[in-house]
Every structure is written in structure tokens, then in C-alpha cells.
Amino acid sequence: MINEGGRILVVEDDPLVSEVVDRYLTRAGFTVDVVDNGLAALDQAQRNCPDLVVLDIMLPGLDGLEVCRLLRTQAPIPVIMLTALGEESDRVMGLELGADDYVAKPFSPRELTARVNSVLRRARTPVAFAGEGIRGPLSSGDLKVDVGAHEVSLAGERVMLTTREFDLLVWLMVHPRQVFTREELLEKVWGFTYGDRSTVTVHVRRLRQKIEARPEEPARIKTVWGVGYRFDPEDAA
């Protein structure tokens, strides 16, 4: 698979898994740093900021969820979490903390490489898919989105969004009052033709918490029961 390269930080305490991931990602053209614990991951990220982090949840000492939370306080670095098969609560928690995607163990190294490429592609070109070339501002009432600058403000205050949250908001705002299923959003925003729809659900909930006055009764990102989600512009007639 063709990619533009980049630096990947792999945080995994199982040497066999980390060796396989390292080999596949290196073969795909990435520069790979490997550490086996959370504290080393934070130190490495500070010394040499990666383009993406592949992060195991089950780590000695500082677990992957806490590492993800702390990474998010430093920079909007894309994160793919590695989770044990069936541990849905961990996956949802990781997404709530800002992870961009997850891959369940045992996993195919080729699938992980494809996910890395997909997440990086979205991070590097966050609006080309959504705005059909739009680089100017979008607005809905006191919600302002500067697409070109990748900035969002609400009532004049800066709103910090992850790359995927920003992509989701732009996609919905560029298509006002159009309903999208979770499967459609997973394909259009995440670039996945398959995957867990809870990824979309968690990101919508997280986005509502940041841009809605009352997240439990959203005025902008509406749920169309049995179908999906739509964006209702505040200043629409």
C-alpha cells in the first residue's frame, strides 16, 4: 500500500506482537519507534513527536487508557488502540478519551497497516473529502468552523477537537439536514467500508459534549431514530 511515510510510535509490552507490527509498518515505509510501557511512551512522544501512536490498552504500570488521555493533553496525535477481543468497555473508553480507531486482538498486521494509512490520510487531509475543496469558514449561529485553519470556536471561545471529531463536524455541516447512517459516516469520515458502528456513536456523543448547549437534548447534531444523524443549522429558516 502506498503511503507518504511518517513516524509511528508502537506501545506494546508483548515483544512478539511489537516485533511483527514493527516489521510490517517498516516494510510499508514508516519509521517505527517501539516502547513497552506507558511512561516510556510519553517520554518518547515528547522527545520525538510521532505522526501516529499504536497503543495497547493492557500495559504494565500506566495503562493505555491513561496514556491516551495524557497524550491528548500534549497534542492531537492520532491514536489507534489495540484491545483484547470482546473488551467492548475498553474500546468505548478509548474512543471517549480521543482514540481515532481501535483494532481488536488477535489482528492481522495487514489490517493494522491499512488502518494506520487510513487514519494518517484523514489526519493529513482532514477536509478534502468533506468540503469538496471548501477552505473557507462554515457557521451555524455562534458555532464557527475555519476549515482551512482547522479551528472551531463557539461563542468566540476556541473548541479543541480531535482530527476525527473535526472531520465529522465538517462533513455534517457541509451536508446540512441530510441524514447519514452510522455505516455511511464510517465510510465517508473514517474511510472504512467495514467496522464497529459504536465508533461513530461515541464520536457523535463526544462532539455533542463540546458544541451543544445541552448535549442530552442536542439542537445541532440530531438523531433520526432508526436511521442515523443529521446536522440542523441554527440559523436555518
Helices and strands in order:
Layout: E1 7-11, H1 15-27, E2 31-35, H2 38-47, E3 52-56, H3 64-74, E4 79-84, H4 88-96, E5 101-105, H5 109-124, E6 137-140, E7 143-146, E8 151-154, E9 157-159, H6 163-174, H7 182-188, H8 198-211, E10 221-224, E11 228-231
Helix pairs in contact: 1-5, 2-3, 6-8, 7-8
Based on CA inertia axes, which overall geometry fits? globular
Total DSSP E strands? 11
The secondary structure category is: alpha/beta
How many DSSP H or I helices? 8
Main sheet specs: 5 strands, parallel
Strand order of the largest sheet: 2-1-3-4-5
* CATH-derived architecture of the largest domain: 3-Layer(aba) Sandwich
**End-to-end C-alpha gap:** 47 Å
The H/E string reads EHEHEHEHEHEEEEHHHEE
CATH class of the largest domain: Alpha Beta
- Proportion of residues in helical segments: 25-40%
How many separate domains?
Answer: 2
Spell out the CATH superfamily of the largest domain: Response regulator
Computed over alpha carbons, the radius of gyration is: 18 Å
The CATH topology of the largest domain turns out to be Rossmann fold
The proportion of strand residues reads: 15-25%
Mean pLDDT level: 85
Please provide a written account of the structure.
Helices cover 39% and strands 21% of the residues. The chain is α/β, with parallel strands linked by helices. The chain has two domains: 118 residues, Response regulator (Rossmann fold, 3-Layer(aba) Sandwich); 95 residues, Arc Repressor Mutant, subunit A, CATH 1.10.10. Strands 2-1-3-4-5 form a five-stranded parallel sheet, with helices on both faces. Strands 6-7-8-9 form a four-stranded antiparallel sheet, covered by helices on one side. It has a two-stranded antiparallel sheet with strand order 10-11. A hairpin with a 4-residue loop joins strand 7 and strand 8. The radius of gyration is 18 Å and the shape is globular. The protein starts with 6 loop residues before the first strand and ends in a 6-residue tail after the last strand.
